[in-house]
């Protein structure tokens, strides 16, 4: 269905191992990650510990290490790994013909909340 997915631009805008942030009007900023093995993930840009900016963390495998206190957060589930407990919402994402799409409903729902 048209309109289900929000086109946020070409995959080339994020180099492997990096992230970019996407402001959401009236909602929480989203971080979009490109892993070294060429996967893309989107999470709310707030560490479940003390809201550190995950987009500035270090990406390894499908995990990002928070820049503030080094919690490891799964990019797939948003959950803290190891002994740490907490979870950050993930945003469904797909790549199609070289462009990144986020599930519109997930982005809109966040901004309505
Ligand atoms: S805020 Fe992320 S580890 Fe503390």
- CATH fold category name of the domain at 14-91: Rieske Iron-sulfur Protein
Give the rounded overall mean pLDDT: 93
Q: What is the level 1 CATH name of the domain at 14-91?
A: Mainly Beta
Give the oligomeric state.
Answer: single chain
CATH architectural group of the domain at 14-91: 3-layer Sandwich
Largest sheet features: 4 strands, antiparallel
Counted by DSSP, the helix tally is 1
What's the alpha carbon Rg, rounded to whole Å? Answer: 13 Å
Shape verdict: globular
Strand composition percent: 35-45%
Low-confidence parts, pLDDT < 50 over ≥5 residues? none
Organism: Novosphingobium aquae
Protein name: Nitrite reductase small subunit NirD
Domain Rieske: 6-102
Keywords: 2Fe-2S, Iron, Iron-sulfur, Metal-binding, Nitrate assimilation, Oxidoreductase
Structural account:
- This protein has a domain at 14-91: Rieske [2Fe-2S] iron-sulphur domain (Rieske Iron-sulfur Protein, 3-layer Sandwich), CATH 2.102.10.10.
- Strands 2-3-4-8 form a four-stranded antiparallel sheet, with no helix packed on it. Strands 1-10-9 form a three-stranded antiparallel sheet. A three-stranded antiparallel sheet has the order 5-6-7, with no helix packed on it.
- The chain has 113 residues and is mostly beta strands.
- The mean pLDDT is 93.
- It contains one helix and ten strands.
- FE2/S2 (inorganic) cluster (FES) binds next to loops.
- Residues 6-102 form the Rieske domain.
């Amino acid at each position: 269905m048209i309109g289900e997915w929000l086109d946020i631009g070409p995959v080339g805008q994020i180099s492997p191992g990096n992230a970019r942030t996407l402001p959401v009007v009236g909602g929480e900023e989203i971080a979009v990650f490109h892993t070294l093995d060429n996967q893309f993930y989107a999470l709310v840009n707030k560490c479940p510990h003390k809201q550190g900016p995950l987009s500035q963390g270090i990406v390894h495998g499908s995990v990002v290490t928070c820049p503030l206190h080094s919690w490891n957060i799964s990019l797939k589930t948003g959950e803290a790994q190891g002994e740490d407990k907490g979870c950050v919402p993930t945003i469904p994402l797909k790549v199609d013909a070289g462009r990144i799409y986020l599930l519109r409903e997930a982005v809109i729902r966040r901004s309505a909340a």
